Amino acid sequence: MTPELMEQGAEALQHHAEIEAAQKDSSGGSASFGRLVHGLTPDFTTGVALYVDDVTVSFDGFKALNRLSLMIKVGELRCIIGPNGAGKTTMMDCITGKTRPDAGTVSFGQNIDLLRLRENEIAAVGIGRKFQKPTVFEQLSVFENLELALKADKRARTSLFSRLSGTQLDRIAEVLTLIHLLPSAQRQAGLLSHGQKQWLEIGMLLMQDPKLLLLDEPVAGMTDEETERTAELFLSLEGQHSLVVVEHDMHFVDQLTEGKKTVTVLHEGSVLAEGLLSDVQSNERVVEVYLGR
Fold first, then answer.
1. Measured on CA atoms in the order 59, 60, 62, 68, is the torsion positive or negative?
2. pTM of the entire structure?
3. 3-state DSSP call for residue 8?
4. If you average pLDDT over residues 8-14, what whole number do you get?
5. CB atoms within 10 A of CB 192
6. What share of the chain is helix, strand, coil (3-state, %, to 5)?
7. 193 and 129 in contact (C-beta within 8 Å)?
8. pLDDT bracket for residue 228 (50, 70, 90)
9. Contacts by residues 90-95 (CB-CB < 8 Å, ≥ 24 positions apart)
């Protein structure tokens, strides 16, 4: 969930009981988008969505990332694995503007230098991130969570309480169906299961039509059935979006890669191995890192 959406959600909760007043207030206190580079569109003509080149991040002398380089193609679904402390979360932090690297470059398409943008601006150009723990607005309904996430209007109160167009209603229904929550549209989000909350947050990202999705351990805590459905969801998004999935569940990774997609293994802030899942699983260096031999 983006910082802007979290701020807007807090506003929405605060004013949820004051619908009439909120509707009349057209100047409401939403976050400023004054610095957004309106109309900036990533150039994907080379077929590459994300470039991470020679990125280093140090914390008190410890290198969380050590000259990390990787490339994600447009429409690609890339799984990234690695032991704890390998640098997976720090990599996502650099891509989304939460952490500034000491060296290196991070580019979205050929033309957008992500290191020059703030977190909300990075979200606005088409990068969505899902953290390990679902962060939905539990006091709102499933429908209201998706409504809040609509890209068309960034003002939380307007987004929640104005009349939706037919196109917007169709889009919400489409996403509800995609994330298996159409029957629960009017249910309070706090009453959903853990897996359903994960799906709802993914749906909130999809409402903003991201070109690149960063998904951090999306099936942690899910049942086997929920994990299976999540794999189906991600596979249906492949091609329409670029997806980077950080995951420890090798069965889930196997479902996503289908024996033919690239898997990247990180270790000590660098790429240790890259290739088909079967290849990296048989790589002696990867086995040594995972088994501690």
1. positive
2. 0.84
3. helix
4. 55
5. 20
6. 40, 25, 40
7. no
8. very high
9. 90/57, 90/64, 90/65, 90/269, 91/52, 91/55, 91/65, 91/266, 92/129, 92/214, 92/216, 92/244, 92/246, 94/52, 94/55, 94/57, 94/65, 95/50, 95/52, 95/122, 95/127, 95/129, 95/214
- Domain extent at residue 272: 3-13+47-291
* Identity of residue 50: L
Distances (CA, A) of 33 to 117, 120, 208, 229, 259: 12, 8, 15, 36, 43
Residues in Cβ contact with 122 at an 8 Å cutoff, skipping those fewer than 6 apart? 95, 96, 97, 108, 114
In a domain, 39, yes or no: no
Using one digit for the tens of pLDDT, what is the confidence trace for 185-211? 999 999 999 999 999 999 999 998 999
**Which residues have CB under 8 Å from 174's CB, separation 6+?**
none
CATH at 125: 3.40.50.300
Question: How many residues in the chain?
Answer: 293
- 44 forms beta bridges with none
Q: Are 55 and 222 in contact (CB under 8 A)?
A: no
DSSP run (H or E) holding 51:
strand 48-59
Residue at 41 is within a domain: no
Q: Half-sphere exposure (CA, 13 Å, Cβ side) for 61?
A: 0
